[in-house]
Design brief:
single chain, 180 residues, two-stranded antiparallel ribbon
Length: 180
């Protein structure tokens, strides 16, 4: 669960140094995929999170090192890329929260996974609004203005999800330690 948490840190925080994100999403999604493989015995939801996490890592490679300027120079290409990244991310986060909920149910333990699901719902709603706004034929300035609120709420929800996943991870590790 620790690898998944560290992966969430990478994808939730953007810390640019000289124009380069020192916590690249590529690494975050690979950590999530690896952590999900290790947790797959606890819930099939974790196994289901592996493919979208790897696909998002590939998108991270394109974004970090690839042909993103060529993709985004075409407005449709940019829209498609943003949709893929946004939907993939929200799917991965749902599967992680659902996996924690499965673990609670199967092992009869309390991990506060219900909070993760509630926070995920806010993220999903804000993402849906942002993705729909991207489709509207607006000028760049109008789009920036209309995306601000859902982007801020989504960012806050992402950080709250990160904190709650940390707490879930901590509870899980304490339960595992007590079983030994």
């Amino acid at each position: 669960m620790s690898a998944v948490f560290v992966g969430l840190i990478f994808i939730s925080l953007n810390i640019p140094v000289h124009g380069v994100d020192i916590l690249p999403d590529l690494v975050g999604y690979l950590l999530i995929a690896g952590g999900s493989v290790r947790l797959s015995g606890k819930s099939s939801k974790f196994q289901a999170a592996v493919f979208p996490a790897v696909a998002l890592a590939v998108c991270g490679v394109i974004s970090q090192f690839g042909k993103l300027p060529e993709i985004i120079s075409d407005g449709r290409g940019f829209t498609i890329f943003i949709w893929v990244m946004g939907l993939g991310d929200i799917i991965v986060r749902y599967l992680l929260a659902a996996g924690a909920m499965d673990m609670e149910r199967k092992q009869n333990i309390q991990l506060e996974a219900g909070r993760l699901i509630r926070i995920w719902k806010y993220q999903a709603a804000m993402l849906a609004i942002m993705l729909l706004l991207i489709l509207l034929p607006l000028s760049s300035m109008e789009r920036q203005w209309q995306l601000r609120l859902p982007l801020i709420v989504s960012g806050i929800a992402s950080l709250v999800f990160l904190v709650c996943f940390y707490q879930t991870r901590k509870k899980y590790l304490n339960i595992c330690k007590n079983l030994i």
